[in-house]
Amino acid sequence: MAAAKATSSNKQASLKEDELSKMKSELKKVENDETKATSLFNRPFDFVLIGFYLTFIASTAFFDYHTVIAPALGVTVRDLIDKDIDRPLNWPPAGFTKSTYKLYGEKVDPIMINNPFFWQLMEWINVIFMTLGNILMASAFIFGWKSFRAFGIIHATSLLYSLILCLGVGLFGEPGYEAVDKFQFVTAYSLYLTFPFVIIGRLWRESPNAFSLSYVKSKPISQHLLQAFCLVHIVFFVSFFYHWIIVNDPELLPWLPEYPIVGQFFLRIAKLKNL
Q1: What are phi and psi of 212, to 5 degrees?
Q2: For the chain, is the Cβ count within 10 Å smaller at the N or the C terminus?
Q3: pTM of the entire predicted model
């Protein structure tokens, strides 16, 4: 009788240990889901954000760099366009400067050629600090570095601040600074207005870890709406500038097919005036 009771007691103890073990395992799984970064493939929209950071780096290298290298060489941006001036590492490419950059500066955004001192300061910030931030944040989204959450919000806010100044000058600035084609000017910069809001929304919640599986599964509806708007905006932006190149600067990417993707609409709105 005593042996039977002992056996029953041992079974109960064993069952309790199993239940406790399962509870600990489940708690650990929940904790991992909330704190541990999940694979990038479980965060598909983050591919879009990484693409934005990399595109920002490229646009800075091709466009913004003109406005800082010209004063450093003791010349103007107009000199870089009109003359054959040696530049470190032959960058930006002279062919790009004399074609696409010239076309965009003359027909859309003349401040990029006139290059006032305050614009040079803004572009130095882009070339040095924002580019470094883009590299760090692209890496943070790739590897799920939670410690860069606050930095990502600050970086996005800085971009939003500089973009508002840029839009203000282009839309309401004095002659020589004011955009020539305001629709195309706003379109060109529009993604830089959308993405900061999307990134801030993506990183706003401190807990759970923004790169965790738990966070991905519990994103608020506001973030889904922001991301959906962002994707629609990207489709419009890419379609617009695909047609912009076809119509206004076909030699930039000569391998692009010379026909519209979506009817004649984008061809009409992308064509520069007086070209």
Answers
A1: -90, 160
A2: N
A3: 0.84
